[in-house]
Amino acid sequence: MAKMWAGRTAGNTDKIADDFNSSIRFDCAMAKQDITGSMAHAHMLGAQGIIGADEAAQLVDGLQGILDDLQSGALEIDLSCEDIHMFVEQVLTERLGDVGKKLHTARSRNDQVALDLRMYLRDEIAEIRALVKALLAALCAQAEAHKAAIMPGYTHLQRAQPVSFGHHMMAYAMMLLRDLGRLSDCARRMNVSPIGCCALAGTTYDTDRVGEAKALGFDDIARNSLDGVSDRDFCAELLGALSILMMHLSRFSEELILWSSWEFKFIELSDSYTTGSSIMPQKKNPDMAELVRGKTGRVYGDLMGTLTMLKGLPLAYNKDMQEDKESIFDACDTVKMCLRVCAPMVETMAVNEDKLLRAAQEGFINATDLADYLVKKGLPFRSAYKISGTLVAKCIADHTVLEALPLEVYKEFSPLFDADVYAAIDLRTCVEKRVSLGGPTAASVEAQIAYVRSEMA
Ligand code: ARG
């Protein structure tokens, strides 16, 4: 078919070049935004007297008809077109004749594609934020149910100090809350309209950029036409936010994988979110969590690809920028898929409180509390630390635990020890006495849940 831009050249590009050049396979995802944007543009052209009011009305109707037909399936996207913008304009012209050819007055595909992508992505962000909230709700519910379940907290993956399962869940909730914040910051900065920047240098027509932007729900307009058509910061920024979100999901997945191993058995994932092995009949594999961890690399790749694509581009539009869409679409789709599986996986996981407690009892995680006990009786911390460490070494040698050492033994190490030492190193005391703000107590977990729920709303 003859190219819309035939003129300077005959437009009969090689078939291989056509396929290479075309983006309709992926930018067809923005059909709705493209048509909505064009309707606002036609309306503006009519209101400003750049085209006749009746012509504007015909364009708006024609565009609405195309949208309806695409949605009903009466019209199929012609994949031989260069991109979605050309497709819509071509169908419009076929249907309306010469009036259709007026739509592209006072705009360019350069500002049009930037507009469509911003509109598309702001909807994607809204959807992703809702999915993050669903995962947050699942985390809060698990935290609530197990707010007092003692488990070992780790550093270096070595048992360190007692925390609660609720506390551990809420640590991830805090990460996701920051992700929500990053996504809304990004949506706010993204919601600036490039339409009317035209190819790069604005236009001689008396357009109304502000009115057109308002009609499309934008908060502002791009203030420099060169920047308006060449800015893809909103893609890089969203990819950055999505990469951080995936990093959080990946760290969480790693813990779920570890915890559901036979070695830990802290949790059991529901059968709905695990798989079996084709050869080993006993297996229950955490495939979903592993895939979330694995797909994180893909989203990082999308970010890296976009940053690299942009780094050498002179102003203003360059065709390289067509590469923005596959990366950002892939990242959004991947994140949505991961969130959709994570929320119910967390919601349905069973938590083995006995196992958590047993692990907490086995790792001398009350050794700091033992040292603190001596400090409260007047010993300097470093000396108390030494005595506590020596007692741990003795316990290890004797195959026992601090709770089981007789008081006479304690007294051999320091005259400051008394019968109240046992209460001081009881794991429940160790958690519930950690009353500093943000700590692991059940009351603190409840406060954290309340905070997250109110911030989410
Ligand atoms: N398909 C193009 C893209 O996605 C649309 C903009 C084309 N502009 C141009 N001057 N060739 O970037």
Number of helices: 19
In helices, the fraction of residues equals 55-70%
The CATH topology of the largest domain corresponds to: Fumarase C, Chain A, domain 2
Largest sheet: 2 strands, antiparallel
The molecules bound to the chains, other than polymers, are: arginine
Architecture of the largest domain, CATH level 2? Up-down Bundle
* Secondary-structure element string: HHHHHHEEHEHEHHEHHEHHHHHHH
**Global structural class:** mainly alpha
**Total domains:** 3
Per DSSP E runs of 2 or more residues, the count of β-strands stands at 6
Beta-strand residue fraction: under 5%
Give the uncertain stretches in residue-range form: none
Give the full name of the CATH homologous superfamily of the largest domain. Fumarase/aspartase (Central domain)
Provide the spatial order of strands within the biggest beta sheet.
1-2
Report, as a whole number of angstroms, the end-to-end distance: 52 Å
User: Under the CATH scheme, which class of the largest domain?
Assistant: Mainly Alpha
User: Mean pLDDT, nearest integer?
Assistant: 96
What overall form do the CA principal axes indicate? elongated
The radius of gyration computed from the alpha-carbon positions, rounded to a whole number of angstroms, is 31 Å
